[in-house]
């Protein structure tokens, strides 16, 4: 099947192979010399290497989280189900980045492009949706503190998981089922073979979920501050102690939301305003920070959790440090 020579084989940003034009010219000249058969050179995009490395780190980190949750029956609360969903989505995203690199340079075809981009879209969509689900769960755990641990919460959690994974799989199947720009390059977005309309829908959906997360975290901050004030009054804490505790909780929430926005907002806004004619370096420069969010997620949502820390200590050291077992949760752990 003939393909446009301007199209990058990676299925992510395009037009990098033009950099190898000079090498192709020299190869053509040398081929005219009798007795000389030049060997074809494989031009590897350094940005693709960085993305593949990022995918490897993402896969290793999140595989550890999944193994910890899977091998510990005590980690079956709704919160851990959602953290496991986030880790699974990020794990698939990392695998997708690795597969994309392998297929781009070893198995080049339109089918592999569609399957790879579908996996990446579905996994990153599930990752963002899992973050939203975790935010909803945290809000419910504070707002309905007395009834949160009921069977109704578990059912609601499973409903959220089914909805977020069902939606993400549907988004990933769109390019495979025909909504792509392989037949009409003028409709391509900055990520080939996604169409401009497809990328716009994904970007707008992200902005909507970010706004919803922002609103929920504002409400969480209000609840945390109110709870910390009530605890301070009951135990006759000093005002400075109440201030420090509240500040830690608010700072933690600001870090969570700020990290999420810093990682995803550049690529989201760039996808809305740019198309396939823009230089590919801009796409790589905005896409790479988005992958970093999947590296940071296990640190923020999993490894900071006391129960997961205890399980990890049991696996690695065979015992739980006394400092960890005696530490009480605080608003900064939200």
TrEMBL record:
Topology class, membrane: Multi-pass membrane protein
Pfam families attached to this UniProt entry: 7tm_1
Chief location bin: membrane
Transmembrane among keywords: yes
Keywords: Cell membrane, G-protein coupled receptor, Glycoprotein, Lipoprotein, Membrane, Palmitate, Phosphoprotein, Receptor, Transducer, Transmembrane, Transmembrane helix
Location(s), subcellular: Cell membrane
G-protein coupled receptors family 1 profile domain boundaries: 61-301
Family recorded in the similarity comment: Belongs to the G-protein coupled receptor 1 family.
Name this protein carries in UniProt: G-protein coupled receptor 12
């Amino acid at each position: 099947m003939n393909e446009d020579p301007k199209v990058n084989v990676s299925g992510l940003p395009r037009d990098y192979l033009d950099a190898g034009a000079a090498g192709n010219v020299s190869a053509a000249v040398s081929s005219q010399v009798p007795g000389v058969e030049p060997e074809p050179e494989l031009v590897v995009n350094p940005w693709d290497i960085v993305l593949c490395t990022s995918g490897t780190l993402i896969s290793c980190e999140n595989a550890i989280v999944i193994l910890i949750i899977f091998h510990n029956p005590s980690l079956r609360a709704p919160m851990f189900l959602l953290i496991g969903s986030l880790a699974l989505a990020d794990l698939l995203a990392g695998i997708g980045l690795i597969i994309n690199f392998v297929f781009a340079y070893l198995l080049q075809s339109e089918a592999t492009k569609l399957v790879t981009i579908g996996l990446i879209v579905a996994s990153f969509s599930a990752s963002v949706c899992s973050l939203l689900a975790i935010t909803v769960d945290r809000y419910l755990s504070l707002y309905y503190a007395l009834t949160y641990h009921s069977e109704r919460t578990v059912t609601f959690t499973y409903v959220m998981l089914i909805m977020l994974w069902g939606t993400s799989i549907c988004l990933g199947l769109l390019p495979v089922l025909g909504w792509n720009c392989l037949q009409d390059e003028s409709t391509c977005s900055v990520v080939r073979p996604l169409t401009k309309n497809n990328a716009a829908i994904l970007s707008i959906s992200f902005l909507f979920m970010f706004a919803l997360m922002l609103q929920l975290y504002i409400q969480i901050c209000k609840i945390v501050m109110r709870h910390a004030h009530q605890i301070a009054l009951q135990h006759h804490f000093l005002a400075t102690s109440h201030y420090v505790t509240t500040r830690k909780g608010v700072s933690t929430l600001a870090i969570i939301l700020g990290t999420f926005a810093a990682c995803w907002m550049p690529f989201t806004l760039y996808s809305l305003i740019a198309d396939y004619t823009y230089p590919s370096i801009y796409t790589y420069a905005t896409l790479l920070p988005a992958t970093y969010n999947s590296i940071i997620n296990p640190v923020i949502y999993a490894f900071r959790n006391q129960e997961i820390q205890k399980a990890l200590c049991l696996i690695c050291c065979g015992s739980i440090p006394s400092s960890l077992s005696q530490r009480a949760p605080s608003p900064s752990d939200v």
